[in-house]
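Lab notebook page, bench 4
Experiment: in silico fold of construct C2
Operator: M.H.
Input chain length: 88 residues
Purpose: comparison with the prior construct
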Amino acid sequence: MAGADSLCDLVRKAQEGDREAFDRIVERFQDRLRRQVRSRLGRKARAVLGEDDCIQEVFLRAYASIRKLRWHDEESLYRWLGSLAEHL
């Protein structure tokens, strides 16, 4: 059953090009990432690049480069996503 996939399995599948696996990763992390972006995005930046735009851009960049991710655990994945957000 696809719902039983561990996060490690989802990452591996996403690295192999499985879009559904990547979408499940997005679902798992989007709220947490949104909170981080909201806390770090200043008012001026928010006026130019909205929170939703920023989140979307992070996940676009993540999808394009997930093969480069070195999986260790859930926190390593979140730190990677968070670093993509910080660079925006």
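Observations: The chain has a mean pLDDT of 89. The first helix runs from residue 7 to 15.
Next step: discuss at group meeting.
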